[in-house]
Amino acid sequence: MSAVLTALAIIFAILSYSMLNIGFVLEKKAAATLPKIEEQSTWRNLKNFLTSKTWMLGFLLVNVQWFLFLFAVEFGSLSLVTPMAGVGLVVLVIFSYFYLKEPITKPEIIAIFGIISGVIILGVMNTESETTYSLIDMNNVLKQIPAIVFVVIFTAIMIGMVLFSLIKQISIIGALYGLASGLASGLGVIFTKAVTSGFDTSNFWATFVDAMKQWEWWIYFALLLGFNIASTVFLQLGYQKSKAVIVSPLFSMASLVIPVIGGLVIFSEWQSDSIGTIIAKTVALVLITIGILLLSYASAKESKKTEKLEKSVEVKYTEE
Question: Structure pTM?
Answer without folding.
Answer: 0.78
